[in-house]
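Hi U.,

Before I forget, here's the chain from the pilot set. I'm dumping it here mostly so it's searchable later in email.
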Amino acid sequence: MASLDKLLSNASSSLSEHEPEMLGQSRRLAGTLADQLLGMLSQRNGFYALESALHVFPTHSSQHEIGICDWNESTLWRSGYKGLADGCLFFAEDVFGGQFCIKDSKVYTFDPETGSLEYLADDIESWVQMLLSDYEVLTGYPLAHQWQKKNGQLPAGKRLLPKVPFVLGGEFVLDNLYLADAVEGMRFRADIASQIKDLPDGAQIRFNLDS
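Structure:
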């Protein structure tokens, strides 16, 4: 995978010292792409790339990093999506906490504010190729670069969340971003997604953002 070599040339060192492995639920959800995902993680078991705009989860959790198995635990955040996240294996994220996942042996993006899936690629290699060709859009790199130039490197386990959610018209600008815990960010936006999932376009909505 020449594309992967190129991506890894701009990436951190491995986030886990363990040999990568996927068992049980994680392997089942990865389907026919399990070996491809493991192939990528065997070269670098979890990493940050593109100035931390891209975060690929390692297979194993450590003191500072959460692994794929734990990240996909229903009780961590995905149950808050009330079915919208079912059948997905979440393995990476952009700088805003937008998820990359495998479902039905294809790669999708998962919008944390709406719970909607958008097809991206047939396999891991094609996903890497798409990242490299459209990384500014797919990872949020420009804002990641600007934010870190002003505030310093993004800490492990943190993402840049919008103060006004993008789905509510929040802008993709520095003034609308704040540093947030990745897990709390997913839980918060799961609440938004679960509230709007059955509403027609243009409906008047009242958010309860305190739950």
